Amino acid sequence: MAAPSPVFFPPKFPINDYIHIKKSHGSLMQATLKRRTNQKEKRMAPYPYKVQTTTPDLQYETFDGAKFGYMFWPVQNGNNEVKGRVLLIHGFGEYTKIQFRLMDHLSLNGYESFTFDQRGAGVTSTGKSKGVTDEYHVFNDLEHFVERNLRECKAKGIPLFMWGHSMGGGICLNYACQGKHKNEISGYIGSGPLIILHPHTMYNKATEIMAPLLARFLPRVRIDTGLDLNGITSDKTYRDFLGSDPMSIPLYGSFRQMHDFMQRGAKLYKNENNYIQKNFAKNKPVIIMHGQDDTINDPKGSEKFIQDCPSKDKELKLYPNARHSIFSLETDKVFNIAFDDMKQWLDRHIATEAKP
User: Fold this and answer.
1) Which domain holds residue 181?
2) Selected catalytic residue, list 235, 260, 294, 298
3) Where is the Serine aminopeptidase S33 domain positioned along the sequence (predicted)?
4) pLDDT tens digits for 309-331?
5) Interval 117-134: pLDDT, tens
6) Would residue 166 show up in a list of annotated catalytic residues for this protein?
7) How many domains, the chain?
8) What is the CATH number of the domain that holds 286?
9) Is 24 one of the annotated active-site residues of the chain?
10) Strands (E) located in the chain
């Protein structure tokens, strides 16, 4: 799950839909995309994946005016040997539970993982604060959790890797270029990163013109962007879960949030003034993993980033018959192939770090 489909307003706005904007709680504006429907309210479908280790409790930490929900998943296997840790950055509208399958597999294979519900998402921002964030808070919040994880990893003598999916992938790759601690991260992993939208999801020209104005003058106005379940995964059981999950739908985003994550991707794609070549973390490895059938974020954006990236250790993996969320919501077959590649990549770079 990641980008709204489509962003801001649909190119062909359904005649039975309408926008309702209201003012509440002082300055907070709220816009809701109402869909008139005769469908009965669905019961929530169970989460399809059965966790093999013990699921950690969700914890909380207050920082800069927000109470963040976060989860640390320790290694739980036969010998509990810890190889390293992966800091996970979720996609648009996602939250901790969406990462359980990946975190469980990392745990079984010797890697700790840490993720947090970003400002505007999950338990960190519920109700009318859902979808309300901006570029400053995205990276200021991330720096806080990077510093926390670096301290803990240094105390244990283990490396820290950064992984990001979709919107989180765009954040991850930009952090590799502009993050305060970019050279202390041992490697970067992008999953279907939001660099450019696929033509299927791309907004129209009118939206392109209006987006900066809406973000500037109505930054906290939110809309239900709609959730492209078929674009996210080919697995019906995960579609049923996601489509009935109250934490995932409605998929709210504020004008400021959506404008900022689109500009964040454009920064990588346009690569103006050799932004990537001049700023990418020195001598750090990067791998991008992208479903070939992704109709939300275009794999061409990932291809271009790898071309522009100056790292000597860079790799692009494209997965046939795989849609957008290859790690969190795609079929077990797709996940197992992608995770095996990720594990081998991590193991290889753990071995590289261990060399004198």
Assistant:
1) 17-354
2) 294
3) 81-330
4) 999 999 999 999 999 999 999 99
5) 999 999 999 999 999 999
6) yes
7) 1
8) 3.40.50.1820
9) no
10) 17-24, 28-35, 59-63, 66-73, 84-89, 111-116, 160-165, 187-191, 222-224, 252-254, 286-291, 314-319
